[in-house]
Amino acid sequence: MTDRTKLLLTALFLLTALCFACSDAMAVPNEKNNFELYFGPSQDKTKTIDNYFIQLVDSAKKTIDGAFYELRLQSIADAFIRAHKRGVKIRLVTDTDNYDNEFMKQVRKAGIDVKQENRSAIMHNKFAIVDSVRIWTGSYNLTDTCSYNNNNNALSFYSKELCDVYQLQFDKMFEKGLFGPDTPSDVDKQVVEIPILGQKSKVEVYFAPQDDPNAHIIELLKGAKKGIFFMHFAFTANEVSDTLIEKAKGGINVAGIFDSKLYRSTGPYSEFFKLTSADIKIILADNPSGKFHHKVFIVDPGTEDGFIVTGSENSSSNGDKANNENVLVVHNPKVAAAFYEEFKKLFGGFSNSYATCVNFYVKPEQEVASINMVFNSNGKPIDKIEVGYPARWALNGKEKVSIFTIDQKPYPKGTLIFNKKGFTAVNLGLKAFGKGSFLIFNFQNLKAPKIKGGYNLYLKSATQNSGKPLPLNSQPGIQVSDSISNDEDITNFDSLLQKMYMSYSELMNIQQNTANDEVFDKLFDSWTDNYKEVTELILTDVKAGSYEKLDKFLALYSKLDADHRSKVSGFVKELKDLLKKNSVSGDAEAKNRLKMID
Prior knowledge:
With 598 residues, the protein is α+β, with helices and mostly antiparallel strands. The chain is built from 17 helices and 29 strands.
């Protein structure tokens, strides 16, 4: 393919996406116009997603089969009842927790047949089959908040083949009462090829838990050639984040958006700590009135092979192994381009500033006298910094926050304004470069949380004239574990080692600029305690003839100058002694690594 052809294709994809964004969507697809895509929320109340779903229900002639986690909107309940009264046969499946809410009671009282799944796991689907030819799916719940507040997507197709795939799953739930892992899988019958926007397109469908959707998603992500962009309400699937990190290390552009309100977004259950520690850019969605409810991967947008993954399933073990969910994969470059335009609109930009926690590890429920975070403007004068506390890190009311210059003197400017989730430092007057570009936040009298894992602060910064604060490229984090010499307690060894290196670099900055040796020694002592545990972990593996962790350390060691190498000479001597011992035993890998250290 010539460069000119690639350029034309890119322009075509972007133009198509722009058309999606700007045109009035037709709610009900038909044979000629067989696909519609909707994003919400919309400021125009006539174009919110609920309006399009109601128009779909109003178009029904014979049947509606729907599986929805929740119905909590009067206008949609009314639409179902209208359709029932005009003779449309309606069958619904819902989650047990929502079976008896006032809206489901109304539709049941009207004579509509509703089934529940009666399990502790949830029936989390959001799909409807209308007249056996139209299918609706996506992340949208039939609720007021999903209609008017939350970020969501919905897709509607005119396709008998795709309806047949969903009908088979609906009948398992409604007619046979099959929910959960005992449901038989028909994954070999769930791939169709249908026209979408004038192009034949492969569409794959996976139902959880029987089809193990995450395994299929991982294989799809592994095939990415240029970029992976994700939008997720809840992201806790370790194996999926491993794949994203692997692709990012291989040169693929990986970036994402998480919900900002979910209690675990920057806490121990989320993959935020692990992904951002691997230098993957992630922001928390800026939606003050609602949740970021998407469950989307966009792969290789702007290419002929672009595709999207969407549906009801969050990237989590519960979603994959326990809940009833549906995942849709649409191989179509125009659809991928449209989703990518939505992603870019929501993703925004980043600040050049960076921040690092000098303390990178504490123990569960430890009384922590002090944690220090170094902030640097990194090229632009900064006047405002917003700091969000980590999710699930409870406050005890005794905490204090102070700000200092890099030479450990009280910062003479600025005001701290506190709120429930953190604080904002204003009127700072930080310079773009030099000593005046640094700020140290000192957090005192903290108690570490009980739950082990990675915890992130979430920072945004703004210049005096830039207005809206932008998130940092990488967010500072702290590991909470009983011991970082225990693999089971470590979220990710790569990230731990990287944070140790970054903390060391900031300590060297402080040492070069401080006249207060006593204060610096206290900071360095807390770092050294963490450092000793990390090095012990590496030495233990080397004794056993395992060199994976050593190789990761050596990658950082190679970046140190002679002066900094001298500061870890004791550890390096222990390494050499062990490697020599292993070499004598005939370990060729040990001999190779000896050469790398020398």
